[in-house]
Amino acid sequence: MKSPGRFAVMMLFSFAVALMLRGVDTTAGFSQADQSQDDPCLKEKAELAKINNQIAITERQLYLRELEMRAVLNESIEVDKKIAARGPEMSQATLDSLKQKSADLRNRTTRLKSEIAQRKEDLRPFEERARLLKERIEQGCPPVGDDWQKAIGKWGSKDNKVQFEIQDLNKADREYYRNTPVKIEGYIVKQGGWSPTKVKSGDILFISNKVGGNTLSGKWLNAPQGTDCPRLSVELSNCTIRIDPTSDTLTVEHDAMLYSYPDCKWSKETRRKTATYYRIK
Length: 281
Fold this sequence. Notes:
This protein has 281 residues and is an alpha+beta fold. It has helices at residues 4-20, 42-84, 92-138, 171-176; strands at residues 153-156, 163-168, 184-190, 204-212, 215-222, 235-244, 249-260, 265-279. It has an eight-stranded antiparallel β-barrel with strand order 1-2-3-4-5-6-7-8. Mean pLDDT is 84; it is low at 1-13 and 15-36.
């Protein structure tokens, strides 16, 4: 006879698979009439459709994993109840089997949590790109300028505790070789709050080789704060920088990595942080 836990798992997965087999609308709400060759947003809409399809697939995979984890957690609870309520009639072999099953379910839960966290992290760049494309389509897809170049220069936080300089490292090369990818880096001028043994003036804060319009996409520094965790490595994670040339401000959206203290280990989880910096003249 199948256990209630296994029956529940099968029912949940049957329902989830049925959902996955449904068609996915990837047109992002745009009619065929919008897809004419004269449409200035034709390229953006095609890219958005592909990204929306990828997001839908990943979200369904996430949904399956979350269903699976919920079922595993429920089964784990039932097994632990049996162990706690064991009577003298339960053999040692049966008890040992239940304990092993409980341990296996806990390990499976840990793996699923890690996989779910990673899939959510993988989804972020697609969601960010979709957001930018939607904004551009709503604006009628005007010709892309080079406002990102206005990010080159020195920037600081409002209290000037953090200062950095963004440099275009291969502008001259691109003028001669048109297919040369952009190479942008930001260097710390004055660091505020990071571990002084890990982050010093002149260290890299930001790297990018993807630019467009008023946006630079790349990686941003993660380091322990103050005297925390002197042996913890410095890491980089996804970020987007937008320049507002009218107000001379720089907005940084950064997937800040979290670390445990005093264990001093980086977590796979991130927290989206937004900061504004001002041009130093």
